[in-house]
């Protein structure tokens, strides 16, 4: 179908049919669904008619080839012009094969593996009938109280851009039009949802435009530059206007400035939420503001179908604004080949073969291994000796709740738990498994049983964390410590005098007080996915060597939040040569620095950095500088190290971060081996958003930092002595 053919189709559509194309409904509304008619709660109150459903443009949350085929078939029988439905779903970190949550994937610092995970998710989802995934989420996050940090890739703008591109490449493949095992990606949440005040979901965001452009927007732009087909609006305000009704943000910036001509979809119910936000008096005004802002698809509210025709007849909007939205929707349907192949990749038999395939699970295991971060390893307790007797204790010792939020068709009962994985490594008489407590409750009997088991073991492995419902959307917490019963369990186990390895399952950085004091070793496992137990036991026994690094700082306590590595200095910085003891920017009861900084992560071996050298200390617009650093493996294990390169702009027109990540490289070193790692510094990398919103560099002094994390670095200074490239 060509553009002229689509236009011809639009010419045949009535205004009401066009408006219905802008409506997205959940599967129970549609004929052919096994859930048809099971409409409860707020959905039951929606003013949706049979005519609306027959002409609706897209479906939310349907999975399974048979279900998709059935709904599409019934829809085409009833749709006057035979316009197929788009099927969309939240395929965030896997479909049936569940990978680690995105925050964990980022801790692998391996965009190629991230891309492969999205490719597999797309393959499983597409064969099951999904056309569009609501991913990637690229919101920059600095507040671990916010539950959705698990869905992001962390606190750094550059790294978020790298992973945004990787996920889009993985989902959409080389040719989303002809590759039936790909899905269209939808980047979210536009914009700055990760900056919600107080870390509370759906809450206000208040940023300067300069900060918005410099820190929060680049990852969305990277996804769009990679060809991402769709954008989802955020629930929050931007400069006092909710994103879903924000004409400046959506029309002026996204459409006009960036040139995005794909589909803009609201998040669930966000059009109608313009009313409680206080910028729309009623559904009619909400519809007016959203369509004027450029929102093409209204998800799960009926403001458009109830009021757009009326707004056209009153002259409040031109019909052409609706035509623009319909054209974008039909264009994507045509691009995905739905007019010729309305069932696209949906294949019941192939679905049985591909979904949850063993090769997919193997990649999940590999990515889980690389995503886990070793936070502590006193006295080289790890890797464990296989001759040691293990007491595996805690609410996650044999729990399948390791898939995390947004785990699509993942089945907890099928996940490889720690218990299952340990049983493959150890004979029965060397492993004792007890629960010790539940996630949020504990009994004296559970505690006694745990202490008895621990007393008889050589090593205690404690599996603790957050229930998956404690993070993700609407999973916000003010207390980001482990629940009190688990802290009580750890304290009791410490009295046994045995070495303790603590494994954390969670969706956010935690306040680890009550954990670090009683743990000799700590693994941050996040929610590691379908093969989580296998990956962790491989790491515990040194079958694989940990290499993960944090992409979000762990606060010393929640009172520091937001705490992040690339912060600004103050006029009275702590530690300055002439600083007073009291009247500096500091806390009286806690350090300024996080407990574990961005980029932090241990290995079983040790790496030494030396000889940081620059080919020149003068950078111009026409010449680059090459930095070289020697990295040596001074330990006894072969290990992978992620070498991180940061730059500081010492004096800017506006204040600049103390460090900004500019690049990273992964290298593998044998014991005793040294490699030279190089990094090229260009003027382009020194550009930033100025007070007038121009994007350019400034002449002056810069510092290059290279190291194993954002804190432990070597440094060299250089000068930029030219104006930026035009």
Task: Supply database-style keywords.
726 residues, alpha/beta, 8-stranded parallel beta sheet, 6-stranded mixed beta sheet, 26 strands, 18% strand, globular
Q: What general form does the structure show?
A: globular
* Broad structural category: alpha/beta
First-last Cα distance:
41 Å
The biggest beta sheet reads: 8 strands, parallel
Number of helices: 20
What is the beta-strand fraction?
Answer: 15-25%
Radius of gyration using CA atoms only? 27 Å
Flag low-confidence runs. Answer: none
What oligomeric arrangement do these chains adopt?
Answer: single chain
Provide the fold topology.
Blueprint: H1 3-12, H2 15-21, E1 23-26, H3 50-55, E2 58-60, H4 65-78, E3 86-89, H5 102-106, H6 111-127, E4 132-133, H7 157-172, E5 184-190, H8 209-216, H9 218-225, E6 230-233, E7 237-238, E8 241-242, H10 247-257, E9 263-265, H11 274-277, H12 283-293, E10 298-299, H13 303-313, H14 319-335, H15 348-354, H16 358-371, E11 373-377, E12 390-393, H17 418-425, E13 431-434, H18 444-455, E14 459-465, H19 484-494, E15 500-505, E16 521-524, H20 532-540, E17 607-614, E18 618-619, E19 625-633, E20 639-649, E21 660-669, E22 674-681, E23 688-689, E24 695-696, E25 700-707, E26 713-720
Parallel strand pairs: 1-2, 1-10, 2-3, 3-4, 4-5, 5-6, 6-9, 12-13, 12-14, 14-15, 15-16, 18-26
Antiparallel strand pairs: 7-8, 11-16, 17-19, 19-22, 20-21, 20-25, 23-24, 25-26
Helix pairs in contact: 1-14, 2-13, 2-14, 6-7, 6-16, 7-9, 10-12, 12-13, 16-20, 17-20
């Amino acid at each position: 179908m060509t553009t002229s053919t689509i236009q011809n189709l639009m010419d045949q559509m009535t205004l009401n049919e066009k408006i219905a194309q802008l409506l997205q409904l959940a599967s129970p509304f549609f004929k052919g669904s096994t859930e048809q008619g099971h409409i409860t709660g707020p959905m039951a109150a929606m003013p949706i008619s049979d005519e609306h459903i027959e002409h609706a443009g897209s479906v939310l949350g349907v999975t399974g080839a048979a279900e998709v085929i059935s709904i599409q078939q019934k829809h085409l029988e009833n749709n006057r012009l035979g316009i197929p439905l788009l099927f969309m779903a939240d395929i965030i970190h896997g479909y049936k094969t569940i990978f680690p949550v995105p925050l964990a994937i980022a801790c692998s610092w391996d965009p190629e593996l991230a891309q492969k995970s999205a490719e597999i998710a797309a393959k499983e989802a597409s064969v099951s009938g999904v056309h569009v995934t609501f991913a990637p989420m690229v919101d920059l996050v600095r507040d671990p109280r916010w539950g959705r940090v698990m869905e992001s890739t962390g606190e750094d703008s550059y790294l978020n851009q790298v992973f945004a591109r990787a996920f889009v490449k993985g989902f959409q493949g080389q040719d989303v039009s002809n590759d039936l095992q790909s899905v269209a990606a939808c980047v979210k949440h536009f914009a700055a949802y990760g900056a919600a005040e107080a870390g509370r979901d759906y809450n206000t965001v208040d940023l300067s435009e300069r900060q918005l452009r410099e820190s929060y927007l680049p990852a969305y732009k990277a996804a769009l530059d990679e060809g991402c087909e769709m954008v989802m609006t955020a629930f929050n305000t931007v400069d006092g206007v909710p994103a879903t009704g924000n004409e400046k943000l959506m029309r002026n910036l996204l459409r006009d400035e960036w040139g995005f001509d794909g589909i803009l979809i609201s998040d669930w119910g966000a059009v109608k939420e313009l009313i409680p936000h206080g910028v729309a008096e009623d559904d009619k005004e909400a519809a007016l503001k959203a369509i004027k802002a450029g929102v093409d698809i209204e998800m799960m509210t009926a403001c458009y179908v109830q009021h757009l025709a009326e707004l056209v007849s009153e002259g409040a909007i031109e019909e052409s604004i609706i035509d623009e939205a319909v054209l974008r929707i039909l264009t994507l349907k045509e691009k995905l080949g739905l007019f010729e192949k309305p069932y696209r990749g949906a294949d019941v038999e192939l679905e049985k073969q591909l979904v949850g395939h063993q090769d997919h699970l193997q990649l999940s295991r590999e990515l889980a291994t690389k995503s886990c971060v070793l936070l502590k390893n006193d006295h080289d307790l790890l890797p464990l000796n296989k001759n040691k007797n293990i007491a595996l204790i805690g609410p996650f010792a044999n729990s399948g709740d390791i898939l995390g939020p947004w785990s699509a068709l993942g089945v907890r009962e099928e996940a490889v738990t720690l218990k299952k994985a340990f049983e493959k490594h150890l004979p029965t008489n060397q492993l004792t498994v007890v629960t010790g407590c539940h996630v949020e409750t504990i009994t004296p009997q559970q505690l006694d049983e745990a202490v008895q088991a621990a007393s008889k073991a050589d090593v205690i492995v404690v599996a603790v964390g957050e229930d998956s419902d404690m993070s993700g959307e609407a999973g916000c917490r003010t207390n980001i410590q482990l629940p009190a019963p688990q802290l009580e369990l750890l304290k009791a186990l410490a009295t046994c005098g045995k070495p303790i390895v603590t494994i954390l399952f969670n969706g956010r950085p935690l306040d680890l007080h009550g954990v670090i004091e009683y743990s000799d070793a700590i693994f941050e496992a996040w929610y590691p996915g379908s093969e989580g137990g296998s990956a962790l036991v491989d790491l515990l026994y040194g079958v694989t060597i940990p290499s993960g690094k944090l992409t979000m700082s762990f606060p010393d306590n929640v009172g520091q939040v937001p705490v992040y590595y690339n912060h600004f200095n103050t006029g009275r910085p702590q530690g300055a040569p002439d600083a007073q003891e009291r009247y500096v920017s500091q806390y009286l009861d806690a350090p300024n620095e996080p407990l574990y900084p961005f980029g932090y992560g241990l290995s079983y071996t040790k790496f030494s950095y030396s000889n940081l050298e620059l080919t020149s200390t003068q950078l111009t617009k026409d010449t680059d500088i090459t930095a070289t650093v020697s990295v040596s493996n001074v330990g006894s294990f072969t290990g992978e190290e992620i070498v991180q390169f940061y730059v500081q702009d010492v004096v800017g027109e506006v204040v600049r971060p103390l460090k900004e990540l500019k690049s990273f490289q992964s290298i593998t070193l044998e014991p005793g081996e040294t490699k030279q790692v190089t990094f090229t510094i260009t003027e382009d990398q020194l550009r930033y958003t100025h007070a007038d919103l121009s994007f350019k560099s400034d002449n002056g002094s810069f510092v290059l930092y290279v190291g194993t994390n954002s804190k432990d670095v070597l440094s060299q200074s250089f000068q930029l002595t030219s104006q930026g490239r035009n």
